[in-house]
Design a protein that fits this description.
The protein is α/β, with parallel strands linked by helices. About 45% of the residues lie in helices and about 15% in strands. A 7-stranded parallel sheet has the order 3-2-1-4-5-6-7, sandwiched between helices. The protein has a 6-stranded parallel sheet with strand order 10-9-8-11-12-13, sandwiched between helices. Helix 13 links the parallel strand 12 and strand 13. Helix 4 packs antiparallel against helix 5 and helix 8 crosses helix 14. The chain is globular, with a radius of gyration of 23 Å. The N and C termini lie far apart (about 65 Å). The relative contact order is 0.12.
């Protein structure tokens, strides 16, 4: 029987009725671990407006966080949390790092419009944050086999593939485990209205659902052009974008979202064949939208982000038993093809995408087979199954085998930039990491005094 441990799960995402992927994952990690008998506290450093009977939900600001989780034996963190709470890296608590979202690849697209220096600085900071986490973490989570290969390589570069960790477990699964995003065990049930009944979408129209946000690494433009082609033969085709505004105010609207609206408007499709939900559907209401759809779609561009992505929206399509149209190149695109869940298409292929849409919406036999296969597949991705390695770790959690070992790896530094400006930016990043913006400002003021006199 599991001996309950005190566990704190920390996210910087908002815990509200309208939640995005990081918050959804944190909530479900908390629920699964609480069901195992652990004493769980879920913490947002941003906003917390939810309550759960099985675990505590709290909001701690950055200045409150260390005291707020001081009693926890195990800390589970995600994203950039350690940037604003660097004390986590010095803590003696067992530290689990959730690496399910390799954001460095997303940022290559997200920062594409920035000047080169600013773009490079953003990527350097993200890489350093991940490297610091990889040096300190006791257990790491990723979402797929492809991601595991990525993070094993980075762990090796940071000195973590060493005799101590290898001798404890030659597979290194006790150091880095695959815990994909999950879905609810219960099938979706309607609780209210969804897509149908919206102006322009009738009860008998064929609805293709884009179940998520529109980000720069996705490709809604090819999809919109394909829907235009389909509409020439099928006047009842409807494409519905579920969320155009991210619920976290810290996430800016992406250029691709703007481009999608502009293209749809220019083709005369908006509110006729293409519809944009201006906000973000509450997490507990998304089933109503999924149940109103006839098929789900996910299209993306082909770049390095694709190889390591894990398209969480496709899980909702499995949950609802929807036939799927997806671009290939990522783990789910391959699954769509091999498990006959729908149609896999090539990136940027308008005609091929139009044919795929027509097949999942207007070929009843094909659609029924794909839907049945989706229903059969969803058990594989329920949250308890997806998080089983984390459950096993928490049952007997301990520090990594090399926690008290070769401290030389903690002293490793990035390559020193050759330019004076690069060295100054690196120094400022180091000071902010060690002491926050106050330390940066203090050191800058002291230097100015030395140069110009007090």
């Amino acid at each position: 029987m599991t001996v309950g441990r005190r566990i704190a799960i920390i996210t910087s995402d908002v815990l509200t009725a309208t939640m995005a992927g990081p918050a959804i994952r944190a909530v479900n990690v908390a629920a699964v671990l609480a069901a195992e008998g652990h004493d769980v506290t879920l913490v947002s450093t941003s906003t917390c407006e939810i309550e759960r009977a099985e675990f505590r939900c709290r909001r701690f600001g950055w200045d409150e966080l260390q005291a707020g989780v001081a009693e926890a034996e195990i800390l589970i963190v995600q994203g950039f949390v350690t940037r604003d709470a660097p004390w986590l890296l010095r803590s003696e608590q067992i530290l689990v790092i959730d690496l399910y979202d390799p954001m460095q690849f997303e940022q290559l697209e997200q920062t594409a419009e920035l000047p080169r220096l600013a773009r490079t600085a953003a990527l350097d900071l993200t890489t350093r944050i991940f490297n610091d986490q990889l040096v300190r973490g006791d257990f790491f989570l990723c979402a797929s086999e492809q991601q595991r290969h990525l993070w094993l390589g980075q762990l090796a570069a940071m000195g973590r593939i060493n005799p101590a960790n290898y001798d404890r477990d030659a597979t290194l699964e006790s150091l880095l485990a695959i815990c994909p995003f999950g879905l609810a065990e219960e099938p979706p049930a309607r609780t209210g209205p969804g897509i149908r009944g919206v102006a322009g979408i009738g009860e008998h129209d064929k609805v293709l659902l884009w179940a998520g946000g529109v980000y720069n690494w996705f490709d809604p433009l090819t999809l919109i052009r394909a829907v235009q082609q389909v509409s020439h033969q099928h006047a009842d085709v409807r494409l519905f974008f579920l969320g155009m505004k991210h619920p976290n105010p810290g996430v800016p609207q992406m250029q691709m979202a703007w481009d999608a609206r502009e293209l749809s408007d220019s083709l005369g499709l908006t509110d006729r064949h293409v519809f944009f939900n201006e906000g973000w559907v509450p997490y507990d209401e998304r089933a109503n939208f999924l149940l109103d759809a006839d098929a789900g779609v996910s299209t993306h561009l082909m770049h390095v982000e694709t190889s390591f992505s894990f398209r969480t929206r496709i899980l909702d399509y499995l949950w609802a038993g929807l036939p799927i149209v997806s671009t290939g190149g990522d783990s789910f695109g391959e699954l769509v093809a091999t498990a006959e869940l729908g149609v896999r298409v090539e990136a940027g292929d308008v005609a091929g995408l139009a044919d795929a849409i027509s097949r999942v919406l207007y070929d009843p036999e094909f659609a029924a087979t794909a839907a049945a296969n989706a229903v059969a597949m969803r058990e594989r991705f329920t949250w308890p199954v997806a998080l089983a390695p984390l459950v096993r770790f928490c049952a007997e959690a301990k520090r990594a085998a090399d926690a008290d070992g070769d401290l030389r790896r903690l002293a490793r530094q990035p390559v020193i930039p050759t330019s004076a400006l690069g060295r100054q930016l690196m120094r400022a990043s180091t000071l902010r990491h060690e002491g926050g913006l106050g330390l940066v400002a203090g050191r800058t003021l002291a230097r100015l005094r030395r140069v110009f006199g007090s």
